[in-house]
TrEMBL record, chains A, B:
It holds the Pfam family HxlR. It comes from Actinokineospora spheciospongiae. Signal peptide: none annotated. One of its GO terms (molecular function) is DNA binding. InterPro entries: HTH_HxlR, WH-like_DNA-bd_sf, WH_DNA-bd_sf. This is Redox-sensing transcriptional regulator QorR. Residues 18-116 form the HTH hxlR-type domain. Keywords: DNA-binding, Transcription, Transcription regulation.
Length: 129, 129
DNA sequence: CGGTATCCGTCACGATACTG
DNA sequence: CAGTATCGTGACGGATACCG
């Protein structure tokens, strides 16, 4: 088997027609990463999620939550009262992924100062041409 | 200060007007995650990256690589020969982030079977209405 | 070979209004 | 309160052509 056995990394995600790619695009979407990150804090209602994630519209939030629910990463619980009350939380499947996302946050925020310097340098060089 | 001191997580990424958010959107973009993942294997030429990432157009690849280069996550080295030869690799700043992305791949691929079941169940319930 | 420029379609997204 | 429906815009993204 040699190399085949270990398959060092080379995920199938790189294949356009692979189910994992779709999940990746839900998770790593503009709002997906933020929703998962927010839900890591615990169960939240629709409006609370909306408030916690800055700048998301109702429509996009509903859409994002549905995609994540369909993938089994987020649990949706409706309480039949008036006015309606809907709770969102991470599933056991979704939690590790959300934690991975949180790890990315951490790294990116730590890197932010360096990134800003890099951007400034880059833009400067461009202007100098 | 109690809770305030630790600031459990609650990254500034959730603020729409924050530099980290922009970086996050580059990294967690459709092609950004894939490019970073591919470069983790080592230095690659433009064409090699294009081949490794399934389904990306030249335009989007160039655009993605530029954004990551501007953020200081990817290093671009031009060798002035004919025909042109351009190498791309991760910077010290970019590598940890790329590794975080790889971690997400792993998690998502492990989850894929469960996700497919969840999707089937979800779609079934919808149809049953 | 590794881009950049241009054109153009599509769909992601936001704003608004409405329902249960 | 938590959505769904509809519509309009603009950015994203692909195809093509051309330059260094």
């Amino acid at each position: 088997m040699g190399v085949t056995e270990a398959t060092p990394f080379r995920a199938n995600v790189f294949d356009p027609n692979c189910p994992g790619r779709g999940v990746m695009e839900h998770v790593a979407s503009r709002w997906g990463v933020l929703v998962l990150g927010v839900l890591l804090d615990g169960t939240l209602r629709f409006g609370e999620v909306r408030q916690a994630v800055g700048g998301v519209s109702e429509k996009m939030l509903a859409q994002t939550l549905q995609a994540l629910e369909r993938d089994g990463l987020v649990h949706r619980e409706v309480r039949p009262v008036i006015p309606p009350h809907v709770d969102y939380s991470l599933t056991d499947l979704g939690r590790p992924i959300a934690e991975g996302v949180r790890g990315l946050y951490r790294l990116i925020e730590e890197s932010t100062p360096s990134v800003l310097v890099a951007q400034a340098t880059f833009d400067e060089r461009r202007a100098a041409r």
